[in-house]
Amino acid sequence: MVSYLQVQNLTRSVGDKTLFSDLSFSIGEGQKVGLIAKNGTGKSTLLNILSGADQADEGQVVFRNDLRIGYLEQTPNYPLDLTVIEACFWHGNETTNLIREYETCMASASQEGLQSILDRMEQQKAWDYENRAKTILSQLYISEFDKPLSQLSGGQLKRVALANTLIMEPDLLILDEPTNHLDLQMIEWLENYLSRSNVTLLMVTHDRYFLDRVCSVILELDDETVYTYHGNYAYYLEQRAQRLEVARAEVARATNLYRTELDWMRRMPQARGHKARYREEAFYELEKQAHRRIEEQQVKLQMKSAYIGSKIFEAEYVSKAYGDHVLLKDFYYNFSRYEKLGIVGNNGTGKSTFVKMLLGLVKPDSGRFVVGETVRFGYYSQEGMQFDEQMKVIDAVRKTAEYVDLGGGQRLSAMQFLQHFMFSPKQQQNYIYKLSGGEKRRLYLCTVLMQSPNFLVLDEPTNDLDITSLQILEQYLHDFKGCVIIISHDRYFMDKVVDHLFVFKGDGEVKDFPGNYTQYRAAPSPLPLLGSAPKIECSEEKKKALPQRGSGEGAGRKRKMSFREKQEFQALEKEIEELESEKADIEAALSSGTLSTQEIIDKSKRLPVVVNLLDEKSMRWLELSEIEQG
Hints:
The chain is α/β, with parallel strands linked by helices. Among the domains are: 81-167, no CATH class; 248-290; 313-522, P-loop containing nucleotide triphosphate hydrolases (Rossmann fold, 3-Layer(aba) Sandwich), CATH 3.40.50; 540-629. Helices cover 42% and strands 20% of the residues. The strands form five sheets. The protein has a six-stranded mixed sheet, sandwiched between helices. A hairpin with a 2-residue loop joins β1 (3-14) and β2.
């Protein structure tokens, strides 16, 4: 196997905290590697070092020569005045730099070095870079290519950044939390894309289904050391449990031996100088081993929730729209006591607006929510995390409550409660600005749960949380004696917690499905979250892959294609075929090396015109095909 990346003795500290020490591992061609670690242990820092955005204190990172690297940051950063398509050219890479070099050369009078540039553009497939960008953007449901980034949601911006990374067709793809802010359909698209692709991958994600289905190697960063498991996430769980069991046995054995050696060391201290030096040295090594702590959180947190009556809430024919964008339409539902509901759907279908209307933060256009008198909400929102960064962790929690009531006369202090969520006494004295993104999310979750609500509304609670934190939260919600509504794109999390789903399909339509997400996707007649994404290419394979809409609910309301549209549809098929042929001919001619300078210039100018025409006609063909299939 060809080695793409070798990390050798990497060490990195932040202040007095060591993130990792003497870290060494390698990634070979074709491997798909998932990196797992607790929040605050340096996952994003490690990826930044590998991408060149940060530096290690010691050690080195060695890449194979001429390796193309694509890096998706956890929080993409672009100038917001760029358009979507401009953003795809913003982060300089070899291809975009070459395109700029070509444009500069074409604009010069002498056009010196043009043939060399043309040869390199052919090698790097730079001619159809913009077309590839539009294709991937379309598959990610970004179709307004000239829309400013300032008008995009967080999920849309993440998809633009993802497209920007994939367009490069890198040899090594580095992804930091790629599923954050993506809806379920986009996560499944990315999962399938990466599973089929031959790209070499290094990825940090908390999505356990994603890890299990995409990755063949798991790296675990724990106790400043990296452990390698050659298998998927399920295999990692088995092997990790065995590793911890062996480690505990070693510590127990060392502890027993330590007692014997300690007694030996204490005997006749005046004669210590005569003791065997090697035995003294072995004693101190044994002492380290015996005092080693095997950190494995097995927290089962049961907290008292306020009494909740039989009347929870009733949504009485609620409607909500923003202009022509309908989110809810005459929606009625009577919520039951102890119900645990998951809400799924694509971004922009109204999931967050629904819970904000329930909480009274947004007013419906018509209808109303009638909430029971005993209901006490606890709301975790995507935007609600607001802390004074100069505050200490413990002070931020004490600001909410000094004690947490566990019921039965038991209670926890704020310090004890934080330890249940993996904030050690030392970490509790840290200032909030020193926390990682995931640690801040965990702290925010603590402040919500310690208010003893009886109705939890959690909007994307899994973003940035590590897997250990997710397991604690899953167990807490499983045992929670109250009502729960969860909006989440974490399929594993939803499967573990919810009893049924609201599926927001768009245009105000909401379906109630009696089961979890995996059961929903496996249903004989699954309710699609949304139709297929528009595609740029229109080959026979693509045509066959288009969704069939000739049956099912609402099929009878589709309009028929007019005679003129039928004629246009037939003509488009021929025009697209001719344009695809012309595009192939131009590309072949440009790579032949037999053209004169003027012919090269003429064909170089004609190629983008053909590509744009092909895009326009393909999109129109898709619009008409939707009508034809309806």
